[in-house]
Amino acid sequence: MSTEVRNLEPKEVWNMFADLNAVPRPSKKEERVIQFMVDFGKKLNLETFVDKVGNVIINKKATKGLEDRKTVVLQSHLDMVHQKNAATNFDFDSEGIKMIVDGDWVKADGTTLGADNGLGVAAIMAVLASTEIEHPNIEALFTIDEETGMTGAMGLEGNILKGDILLNLDTEEDDEIGMGCAGGVDITATRTYKEEEVPENSNAFSITVNGLNGGHSGMDIIKGLGNANKIMNRLLFDGFTNYGLRISEINGGSLRNAIPRESFALVTVDAISKEAFLFESNLLINNIKKEFATLEPNLNIEISDTNLPEKVMELGVQEGFIKSIYTALNGVYRMSPDIEGLVETSNNIAKIVAKDGNIKISCLTRSSSETNKLDLANSLKSAFELSGFSVDFSGEYPGWQPNVNSEILDIVSNLYEKLHQEKANVAACHAGLECGILGQNYPEMDMVSFGPTIRGAHSPDERASISSTQKFWNFLIEILKNTPKK
């Protein structure tokens, strides 16, 4: 499959991407891709080193005639989100991504593609390997663990980079130039419960919610897509309220920064209520499908008979649990009052696991306003604590505040207009980029973000536009030739 990808233009980028995608690179397990990048830099005889947290830095001197330009940091992250369809047999820890060309798109066979942020990494690799591209002094910064905490960016010390300008290659619309982004905080609610015997004369059912689009919990949150955890909770709430449904197990969602596509539950209902429960549940299922018919045409919800479990959740905890999920906000909390169409604050109820006497609820709250981020986080904390949960805030990272007087922003914006005879969309985004974190230790560094068009990031529907990648590559080359003097 990679042979077809390697023949795409620009070949220098797609070949680097194919090489990268052959290396398993899950977040927090980047040892192999770190070594891959070190070997790559050393093979080119470029100064290459790994910092104390695992970020890889490769330095390349300016080409002739551009020695007087400001040093540019080219930055992308090495890790990728691992999501796959339930029916896909694939081991992210040992297999390379299987890529497919479909018209103008490159996608993967039932898994995430890794274009986020692999195409950015590949473009930087292509610049480093080139003997023809004109460029100033370059510091290539390949960070780790962006997708599950941004610990690479957080751990980068302030005395390592010497660059004046940072080009972050992690934006997913090729007509967009990023000048700011949201910060975030992980909210984790946990509690224990007693397991009780399954009531006598019970029937067991497995409930499945799947077929949802999923997607990036920042960039796609505005779309109003279905969240499998919230949909499942509607079914559980209705069954519990009307027919005394009891929960044995729940497993919904996957990663904190991915909108949940699937949820599975094992429940019991009194045998005498079986027919009424199924009838009422199917009415609710039909209504939910109608609500999401436009946005989620492939939504599937099934209830089927199964074997009785050994235990169920204690009744009092179950009631508080279901009601806390119903109370907790999922989706957009507030739109930006200053930038039209930009989500300011949101929450993703990312993962819910209830089994063996333990419940864990994982959320990711994002905001470009630190005060509203805390406001929503406290709202969620209150909803869960009222039901007896312990709530922890962790992994907090700052937003990237826009700099309207940025020199590199002016240069990049003008170059885009010159190349394409139209203005770029200069905007802040609701995703979490590493620029805000990097800016804490490098406050004087001038930053922008851009990249090729990628759709469905953080889901198995992830795909990258071939024509857009060519556009992005040409744009990057022009920027490097036109960076400002020292």
CATH level-1 class of the largest domain: Alpha Beta
Helix content estimate: 25-40%
Low-pLDDT residue spans: none
Average pLDDT reading: 96
End-to-end distance: 45 Å
Rg, please?
A: 24 Å
Fourth-tier CATH superfamily name of the largest domain: Zn peptidases
CATH architecture verdict of the largest domain:
3-Layer(aba) Sandwich
The CATH topology name of the largest domain reads Aminopeptidase
Tally the beta strands. 23
Which percent range describes the beta-strand content? 25-35%
Q: How many domain regions? A: 2
* Major β-sheet annotation: 9 strands, antiparallel
Structural class: alpha+beta
How many helices?
A: 12
Choose one word for the global shape: elongated
Notes on the protein architecture:
Keywords: Hydrolase. This is Aminoacyl-histidine dipeptidase. InterPro entries: Peptidase_M20 (IPR002933), Peptidase_M20_dimer (IPR011650), Peptidase_M20C (IPR001160). It comes from Polaribacter marinaquae. The structure is a single chain. This protein is α+β, with helices and mostly antiparallel strands and 486 residues long. It folds into 2 domains: 262 residues, Aminopeptidase, CATH 3.40.630; 213 residues, Alpha-Beta Plaits, CATH 3.30.70. It contains 12 helices and 23 strands. Strands 9, 11, 12, 13, 14, 16, 17, 18 and 19 form a 9-stranded antiparallel sheet that branches. Helix 2 packs across helix 4, helix 6 runs antiparallel to helix 7 and helix 6 crosses helix 8. The two termini are 45 Å apart.
